[in-house]
Amino acid sequence: MSNRTRIDIVEKILDYIAREEKALKTHILYASNLNSSNLNKYLDWMVKLGLVEKYENNRNIAYTITPKGIEILDKLKNLNGVLNSKRDLLSDELVFYRDVFKKTMGSQEFTVSYKSVIGRTGLTYTHLTVRYGDVEYLLLSLNDAAVSQHLIRNLAYSLFVSDDTGMPLLIILRNKIVQDVVAKLSSLNTSGRRVKTIVV
What we know:
The chain is 51% helix and 25% strand.
């Protein structure tokens, strides 16, 4: 359970309380899989935020979810859904990149990540990068079936980042139809820019 995020934990606690309507603290403890000290911190924090209400009866402590808590729970479920789909997408992308690099560049280890890079102009860019062997590339994957504003915009942005940072650009083309256009745009005003293109 060590890979759970705070979002996961808060969602689990709120979800359990919502299902139970009035949940005993000891039951929340087992359902959340937290120790008593950590659970107390979460519950105190949620009470302060108005997500849950605390009730004490003799020695029993129970919690109910508030309307605000229900609203936050819905948002957390949506957020976790988006994050999980992004994780699945990234996992699929990594498998794709691994296969491409193995076929075209050999079997060296590689690392793909989003990274902030600073250009000579002082601007900071967030861009997908790949470290392959001793070289770190800006990575751009284009799967457009036709030349479009979207493709031109993505390519122009990556070429600009490459120029400003001095980092080489690795372009993976998933469709040969746009290959000529990408080659022409990549060759404009190169100013020493290094561009490598892989067609798959």
